[in-house]
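Exercise 7b. Backbone tokens:
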């Protein structure tokens, strides 16, 4: 096959007819230099000396340039504008290996009163399960560390917080926490779970990273900041429960309908003259509790608003919402890519595919439910206050394809909103790049 195609055309009248050589896409410099010269001569007529020189000049023009001198590189770097670098990544929980020391792996099934532990030395078989108190486990770990063993421990994260994790780390062990998973199918006992955790830990330490997925341990400051937002949500639910209790009692004993905030000052004065004295006494006790809860919620809201004071934020994303998102995420720099952000929200679609068939279902909900709820609410507000949001503009056709498709698109935009917030919070882009308008 020839390396070029000849095309004749008239360019300049004084020079007459010239030929233009169009190089084919599959041609390389190696084929150009090594192709058989006889085949070339057979496929094209002989070129004059002027045409050979023009071909060589064209090849030299597209050939790689010679390496630049250090002085030239310095000038080019100085003239190039500085690109904003990404923030440093946070290291994921990984074991620290000591090949020349014996190791001990611990699988822990944690309960409030006791801990079921299974130990494995190096690559030997797992030992029999042992039932220990938390204090006994810490003392035993300290003894193992004093004997020169490298202790690795793993447990499932639960409602007991990170107290045991910090105690194990203080005792000298490398402790890891994983999300609760089905370890033995339909069979579940404390001994089986502890043994399965120990076996998975041994494989994970040996290098099989698919066996365990340790979670990030928040700092004490991050835990306390997150507790404020969660306490506000808890108090809000308790207040609603007490208010509904008052509505139910008045409906049961007086067959009347109460106002929405019946414990308010003005509404309460009207109720004092219309309700039965016994029912009024019952409501008075509920009202006292509600007023105390409202005072606590007001103090918590003031503290959360103070966190976002004098900070830029997009229009449609309130101070309480942004403060709650920051507290639940703990640190936006913990994520390395957009896939990790989407997985944290639990808005990724479920999938069941095999061969040439692909079935995408509803979202997996395997993430932070509090964050997912806030993101969905924020998306609906963004439709009104952020008409230039680029992510929503790309899906404007689906948003107008009916109510069912619109709801599905809102969930997809909630995931995209989390990614956009991550990019904005880590300095990868600005609000203008996302099409947002600041408050």
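Sequence design result:
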């Amino acid at each position: 096959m020839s390396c070029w195609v000849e095309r004749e055309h008239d360019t300049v009248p004084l020079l007459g007819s010239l030929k233009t050589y169009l190089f084919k896409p599959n041609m390389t410099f190696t084929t150009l230099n090594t192709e058989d010269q006889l085949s070339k001569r057979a496929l094209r007529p002989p070129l004059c000396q002027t045409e050979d020189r023009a071909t060589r000049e064209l090849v030299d023009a597209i050939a790689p340039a010679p390496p630049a001198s250090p002085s030239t590189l310095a000038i080019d770097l100085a003239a190039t504008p500085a690109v904003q670098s990404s923030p440093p990544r946070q290291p994921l929980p990984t074991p620290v290996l000591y090949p020349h020391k014996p190791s001990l792996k611990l699988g822990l099934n944690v309960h409030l009163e006791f801990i079921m532990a299974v130990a494995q030395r190096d690559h030997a078989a797992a030992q029999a399960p042992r039932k220990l108190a938390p204090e006994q486990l810490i003392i035993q770990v300290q003894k193992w560390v004093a004997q020169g063993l490298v202790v690795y421990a793993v447990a499932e994260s639960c409602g007991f917080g990170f107290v045991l994790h910090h105690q194990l780390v203080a005792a000298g062990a490398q402790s890891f926490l994983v999300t609760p998973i089905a370890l033995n199918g339909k069979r579940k006992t404390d001994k089986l779970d502890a043994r399965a955790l120990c076996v998975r830990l041994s494989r994970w330490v040996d290098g099989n990273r698919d066996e365990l997925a340790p979670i990030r341990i928040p700092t004490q400051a991050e835990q306390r900041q997150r507790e404020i937002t969660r306490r506000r949500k808890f108090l809000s639910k308790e207040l609603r429960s007490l208010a509904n209790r008052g509505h139910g009692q008045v409906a049961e004993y007086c067959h009347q309908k109460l106002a929405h905030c019946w414990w308010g000052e003005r509404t309460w004065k009207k109720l004092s003259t219309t309700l039965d004295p016994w029912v009024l006494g019952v409501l008075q006790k509920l009202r006292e509790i509600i007023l105390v809860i409202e005072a606590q919620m007001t103090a918590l809201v003031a503290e959360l608003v103070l966190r976002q004071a004098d900070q830029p934020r997009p229009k449609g994303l309130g101070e309480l919402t942004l403060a709650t998102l920051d507290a639940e995420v703990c640190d936006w720099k913990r994520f390395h890519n957009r896939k990790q952000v989407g997985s944290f929200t639990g808005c990724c679609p479920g999938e069941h595919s095999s061969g040439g068939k692909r079935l995408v279902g509803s979202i997996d909900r395997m993430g932070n439910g509090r964050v997912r709820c806030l993101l969905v609410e924020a998306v609906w507000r963004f439709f009104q206050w952020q008409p230039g949001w680029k992510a929503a503009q790309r899906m404007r056709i689906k948003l107008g394809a009916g109510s069912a498709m619109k709801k599905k698109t809102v969930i997809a935009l909630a995931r995209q909103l989390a990614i956009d917030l991550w990019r904005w919070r880590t300095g990868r882009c600005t609000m203008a790049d996302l099409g947002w308008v600041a408050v």
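Instructor comment: The beta strands are 4-12, 16-23, 103-110, 115-121, 130-132, 150-156, 174-178, 349-354, 357-363. Residues 220-253 form the longest helix (34 residues).
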